[in-house]
Predict the structure.
Amino acid sequence: MKKVVFSIAIVAVVATMASCGSKTAKGGDNDSTAVLSEQSDQVGVADSTVASAPEELWTVEAVETQVRKIYDRLNDMDKNGIVNIRQLEDEFCTSYYLGLRNAISKSLIDAMGDDHMFLGDEEGYRFFAGMGTPLEIETIKADLLTGDMAQAQVRFKGADEENGFMRLELDFENGQWRVKNFDQPEAFGPGGYLKIMQDFAGEHGISYEGIASPKGDDSDQQ
């Protein structure tokens, strides 16, 4: 799996959309958790109704186990042919993330007939932390934030100074810890991948209904 330069894909798709009269995406603040709450009103989402994690899963061990499960699944896919990023997201990401991804995908397909330049199924930069497969976890540091939110900082073996670190923001949803945001500074900049999607959706007028917003958002439905 070749190393991905994420910014090239973003520049390409933004340039294409700009040629049709759209704006380019912008950067954000350094506090990714605050950014997610501030930006969710751009895409017209409802307040969060995520259930709190039960006591047996409200542990750092449960979060770590889920992160290892994600990367075991990724490596198993790679070993058996190709890593299917959409399938990984469908299995392990929150409904908010998936709803936003699907809204962007539909908009790009309607406009250009293809969404691969932005969402990059075959490249998988969202999971890879700038590295190729297989990805072997060296350390995980999990933090429980609230009754339904957690964060995991993951370091991969064989990493260099710029790559090999990923911060995952997770919500407890549908009986398991699910990824809400991928934050890898060298690839995504401040705010992580979810903020890139939120900014893109907001600036290109992409909205959708029925998807819960990140925890803490008080915005109204558009």
